[in-house]
Fold each of these.
Amino acid sequence: MIKTIIDKLLGKATAASKTKNPFGKREEVGVDVHNIDPKLVDRRALDVCSTLKEAGFEAYIVGGAVRDLLLGLRPKDFDVATNATPEQVKSLFRRAFIIGRRFRIVHVVYGRGRENEVIEVTTFRAFLDSSKAEQVQGNEKTSKAALAGMKLAVDESGRVLRDNVWGPQNEDAARRDFTVNAMYYDPQTQIVVDYHKGIRDSQKHVLRMIGDPATRYREDPVRIIRAVRFAAKLSKKGFTLDPKTAKPLVECAQLLQEVPQSRMFDEMLKLLQTGHSLASIEQLRLLGLAKGIYPLLDVVVDRADLPFVQAALMDTDRRVAEGKSVAPSFLLACVLWQDVKAGWDKRMLKGEHPHPALQDAIDDVFNHRIGDVSGRGKLAADMREIWVMQPRFEKRTGSTPFGMIAQARFRAGFDFLRLRADVGEVDEALANWWQEFQQADEARREDLIAQVREEQRAKPKAGAAKPKRAPRKPAAATEAQEGSSLDQVAQQAMDSESAAAGDAPAKKRRRRRRKPGAGDAGGAAGGGNGGDAAAHGD
């Protein structure tokens, strides 16, 4: 004991430190211990493993899939790890694609269209020694030229920018983040290979970082977000973050400022769209990360308790749990609706025309909240269509309803309307009318439109009974004083329809109406988010 203390004071390594293996000790655990049900393993993952092994390579199911299998869950995604290089993997499969720069991986694709399944195949990585890595200034974008051709490179803070050095399995295990994500399952022998006591931590329900947590966060700051996501996902199973793993999170959060915005945006969506959005927000608050991770995520966390946003988050979690598709455009449209509506109302008070005012408000939100990351592509187009559709729901006569249900994003717009009705932002009767209209046959749709027309005709008669009527103000002044912007745009549309339908002479021209398409009558089964291709799906 005294000798050990003296050795420490003199800086001498003890016998224990000399024999300590940073790569852990290989343990092979049989089915009698891990109890993994082979029926839970995806057949395509089995095919990838068997193809690689027949070609003479090692192949294991790895990562979160093994963790979920140990917990008796059916994994959503299956990853495979092998000692074959990306080029060797690609050569073995008809539809395989090498992707990524920071770390090259192979996507093996099965099926086509919406039914396609991707098995991600990674090559065992060598243990990272930052002192031997080439250092560059800036990040992936600003240092793109310097990074060309590099296999191992870091920035000034130690964050890994290139990582394409292959190695043995034990070094690959040491490179993974959490012990429960660093196990390898051979589906043929049903053996689990464990280097870092992952099975023990899984049984104890502990999320523990491999190696020194602060160092691992510096290597890849996105691990901070992954820690939150795994803690949220596994919280229902009783998992908690190991104290040593959780301690450096706040002080290391500033490292996320150097991560490219596109990657941060993707990581934010993983937090919100993997079926545990409410639990993720709870973890962010619990761990002291409610602010400063990513500006748009800060907005989500800040508004998570608002009835409309909370309803959208709950709806997203429900759809994921039911195996239905989700799209970021719907959830972000709900989160940012408050900004759009405020900007729209402000412009309307200035006397601007409703439609351009709405478009300008949307543009401002994209510039301020989303920027150039994803706000100018399909995401922005879908969000814009959802928002612009809202005032059009107020117009339920003429050909407008038929044109509405024929739109590709109608179901997204309708689900948005349904959530607004659920929290009392619009009349529930309006959402119910559109629910019935989209499910009805053509005759019933004509009846529904006729009922609305009769209601609109009755309104002017009630007003005519009054002894005097104030002179009509200019349109701009009237709009500026008449409540919500949504009602104003809809009222203009309804006034036009009333003029055509209610105030016309007795002998009217019969107007031909376009019949709905073949798919219109199908509508959606049930309320809210309906079918798989509905609001959240594309």
Note: The chain has a mean pLDDT of 81.
Amino acid sequence: MTRTTALNTGLDAFLDWAETERKTVLPPRPADAVLTLLALHGADRRAGVPEPTPELVRRVLAEDLPLLLWASPDETDAVPSVLTALTDRVRDAGRLNAKRHARVLAAVDDAVPVFVRALGDPRNLTWPRWYASLLRADGVDADDPEAVRAWLAALAAAPHAERPALPEPLHRSDVTAATFAARIRLTDALLSAFAHDVEGPSPAGPLLPATPALEADRPEEALTSELEALAVALTDRWTAAGLAEALSGPHEGLAPGPEALPHVVLADRFLDEHLDQHGDSAIPLPPPAAVPESGEIRALLHAAPLPAALAAGSDDVRDLAEQCGFPGPAEAVWTDGTPQELVELGADVLAAVVERIAAGSDPDSAADEEYALDAAHVLYGLYARGGTPESVARKASGHTDLTVPPELEDAPATVPASAPPGYETPALAELSALLGLPGLTEEDRSVVDGPARALAEVVDELTRTGCVFRTGDTYGLTPLGNAVVRHVLAVGHVAAPDEHEITSWDAARTVAAVQYWPPAVAAAAVTAWTTARGATDPVWSELLDAVSAAKSADFYRTLTTGLFDRLDRARIPDGPLRAALTDPVTGAHAHRLLRSRGEPADEGLVPLTARATLLLEDLDARWTADMRVFVAAADEDRAPEPAPTALIDAFDEAAAGWPGGAASLLPALTEVDPASAVRVLEDLRGRHPDGRVADLAAHAVKTAKATAKRSAAHHRGTGG
């Protein structure tokens, strides 16, 4: 890099000063980036150089440089020296007193470790930084634009399979997003600097170069174009000469922008779905049952009807072909792409179909609207099932008044050996079995038929991508679909681990994840996890201890009953369950599971706290059941007849066997988890027919609320 700078930052004089006065040769590239970014963010330049402040130091080191600068290890190590020398230079100019000087140096010391971590964070990798690293590794002179362009041309001509792969776990969309963020950050800073030059120029003179396009009265388009060109030039100076310019021009195919990755839009939809369901993108989805080997991806994609038609240039899909890059860059991927690129192409096709389904929906058709606008929901829901097949009619019944039992909602549907291509809602006997609702009538079947046909129509449209299948009433993701949807989820930064990653988790993470997964899928994951560790009793006990710890830490969000059901399905041995009988949190759950197996288990070993924990879970479930009855009656503008008593009956039965009866049981429930106990206690206070029990519940409610309030205040105070 030359010592000439286009911006009025005083770089050359500063480097000369450092060499003359401090006998220090500072690397020009990071020095240029540091001074320029400080100046662009409004640093005072009356000292002849941008004046660092603690806030600007943190901003430049933590946010700007990790996106915009390629630096060798030596250049990275020199960044603190650049800032220290700059701070000293400003103090020499009389612009910093001793106290402010010390504050800036302290800010440098604090921010440098953050800068080093951020510079190495894959999430901050941009296309210019990536290719700057590769070309230097190949021995290319990064200050020679002709050499850089020749290297890029050779890379573009190389077969896809021979091009360097991005570091794990990055996808092209991640680098594209970081590149777009860097470009916006730099362009916005330049625009702000231009406004400052015009409205309140520094005594040191304008920061930006004097060009006709940067005059105040130039058209907005000319100004924007000039600032974008200046951003490209700065990026070249901070990465490699001519690199950003080439990547935004003749070699833009090597650095795709958001418009070249249409599946990013679908990824955003999946993220929204996941946040709606779980509230946290880090809560993992179950791994799919079948994912193709990398060598199988090409054949599966080529065999899919719609991708094959796009590649062949069929006239009836020309609009979709253009969205997916046919003719154009997708052709090279189709014939010569890596497995990862082929999966991305499949994702682009799938995203285009999802968009077309939404665009082609009939806004006047309620049944159609339920699904046509939500093809992404259909795909997400299938993946969230662990790739297990679903029933069209059962899924569609969710848009009727029919209520499927919870234990059937996630049950895999059977795939018939064959079925006619057209969709028919199952006959009454089969429909009753699928929905778990005996005695359905033809009227019920007719109610299901409309939304079922609308869903089947969407599913059939998706089947053309090769990612979805439907056989009769059963539909699901294909192995190709599992791979494509998992890729799109990863692009949206939704946790979608594979089966190998799951076996590497610790017990706490495994327990936290599988409680949300369909029971059969969760049981398979638990079996794989324990098998990988020898499936010994201590391994199973490790999982039981993790359940207990999770319940103690978060009563409400830890689904202990569901977790024990999954452990039972995974065939947890009796030995670890017997050892868990004395656990103060989960002992009663272990006791109940042993008894359900017909195994003897001494209830006297189970602590009362564990019994209260199980009871509070059970009573809360009864409260929910009662509330459903009240809500259903309210929807029909009537009172429920008879009034539901599931909670009251369950409480009375539990109190009859509790030492000290209701008077002791109510405080015990409060002690388990005050916040979770409140709604149960309030309902007992309001509806229990025994006035003494109602009064005891009223007192317990006050205690529970006060305790929960103190706990919440302590939680806030400790930053929890």
Note: Confidence is low (pLDDT under 50) at residues 1-5, 363-368.
